[in-house]
Amino acid sequence: MKNIIIAIDGYSACGKSTTAKQVAKELNYRYIDSGAMYRSVTKYFLDHHVSITNPKEVVKALDQIRISFVVNSKGNSETFLNGINVETAIRKMEISENVSQVSALKAVRIAMVEQQRKLGKERKIVMDGRDIGTVVFPNADLKVFLTADMLVRAFRRQRELLEKDDLVDIDDIIDNLKKRDQIDSTRKESPLIKAESAILIDTTHVTVDEQVDEVIRMALTKMIPKVNGNL
Ligand code: CDP
Fold it and tell me: Residue 131 domain-assigned?
């Protein structure tokens, strides 16, 4: 079987990470949440009062940031920022409210993309984000682009936050998703855009299992070499 790179891009709360995690588990591949990297940078900037309008401060701060992923005893990947587990902290609304501004910075993107490419060196990887199929791995074997209706996305995100005992008003979530969609899609550096060769999946009326099955089916066609000749 061929070792492949699977890129899953799309809007916030469309089920990218749920799909990517599950696909990686079933294929025994590594899952990398590139959004967690931008969220970690945002946490560091907020904690250290880094001014995002000061390029020197940004570059200095980026130099101090080490992000890693560790698989826990349940088989789930957790994000570490300078050796500290930030998996729960980076999902808070305060981070969501600032992450798109931070991830629009060129210096931040250069630093993260370099790390993401290193993580993909061994292939056998599923990475989700906004620019994975367009910028990070333009030669990815399989590119998927997820979308869903705004209300469905907002309720999914609200349920996810509630599972972490974080009750957030649905209007605040819709507001945040719309703002991030806008910043992410219109920024100069690596905007959120569907790669030409990406397969579009609208997850509005699709279950997680159906989404996962669809991606696995497409992945298998890339992993299994075509048989030549007549059988
Ligand atoms: O989980 P959710 O879909 O809300 O977002 P995420 O994947 O955790 O990403 C958070 C933010 O990071 C996005 O809104 C983007 O601003 C940024 N991001 C990015 O610019 N490029 C990526 N490859 C991944 C995330």
Answer: yes
